[in-house]
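Entry 14. Ran structure prediction on the chain below.
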Amino acid sequence: MAPLLTTIKTLLRRESFDPGIPSGEFFEQWTYPGDVFSVLLILGGDVVRKALAQLAGTGLTPVTFSFGWVAFAVTAVVSAVGENKLMPLPDCTCKVINGESSYVRDNTSWILGRIMRDYENWMDDAIRVRVKEMIEERYQADFERAKKKRPGSEVNITRRTQAGLCVSFYRAGQANKGAIYPDKVYLSGFFVALLQLGIAAAPCGIWGDWSILLITAAGIGLAFVSGSLSQWRKEKWACRTDHGKTVVLTRGNGAQHAIVISNSDGIGLDLETLAVGQDNVDVYTSCSSRILIGVLAVFWVLLLISASGIKKNTWFLLGVGGIGIVQNIFVAGWHRKPEAFGLPLHYQGVIGMPKVMNTLYEVEKAHPGLGFSMRETFFPGGMLNDDEKEEWARYEQIVKNIKAAKAASKAVFQTQAQPASIVKT
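Output, structure tokens:
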């Protein structure tokens, strides 16, 4: 009862009633928000990781100091020790089809995932034109079908957002693993880093407070070093470059696009091995990489402790971190061209029809065997009618004849290349 009576007496004392206390505390916090920066440093680690995945592997990685770096540093240690890798899994699922063997792989490469995700931003204008034509052709077909089936119902027909399958053809150029591609995504890091240093230098020049400049410079340095580890390049481009293959990238059954990339010269990346490269045991983090990642995590924690001790002019520090996280979000989400990932592609042509099966027919006619390799992906389980089975049987026979002719030609060449036997008398 004694505590209750004390509480009642306290409530009855009107001299202790002061509504100005909360406003004073709010004013103090918004004037010198010291602890907020320390809290923000441990949020947003996933954004930092994706930004690093976009730019890392080129030696110098301009992903700026921002909120989330401490969280990333700790999770990087866990990933390096537990999962044995730094690169995140792709944020866009797609399939990689071998154009000759028809073997289908689920992609695990960040590069191929982003190439597929950003395809509509970098594809050739001729492909956009063909897709619009396909949608219009499908609309006209639906319109006439509805008009014929039930006159008057055609007014309810709307244009589809996609129609059929559009297959584009590209030729791979010279592969450039880890080459710097100075687009706006890459160059933004240097611009923002200089802007951050300028903001941090303001309290130093005005009041002589160099603590914010020190934290900012140390953060930028640690960020650049963290993204420059050789392990990033090893995981990001875990593939060969001396194998000539033709592969197909697509999101699978129901997708609007399929990208055929030929590498007949053997100068591009082996996309089939790249698709599974990040899960390959050969690219697991080495002992030295784990040690470096652990040391960097310690430095990031020390930076967090140091930043939490700053009590004055903390709005400048929040400004530095805020600008940095905006740059990180921009880098993590913005689209890039394939050449930015060391995979230059040269447009060759496009085949697209309002119906998927007709597209595969046309692809097979132009490139024997390629349409057949794609068929199982877009028509799984052999969902074919009798006419389609008959048509594909004819195409399959053509492919067999071509392979037989190539085998016979190769055998003749090998026979002619053998040295004539010398008969001794």
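The longest strand covers residues 345-353. Will compare against last week's run tomorrow.
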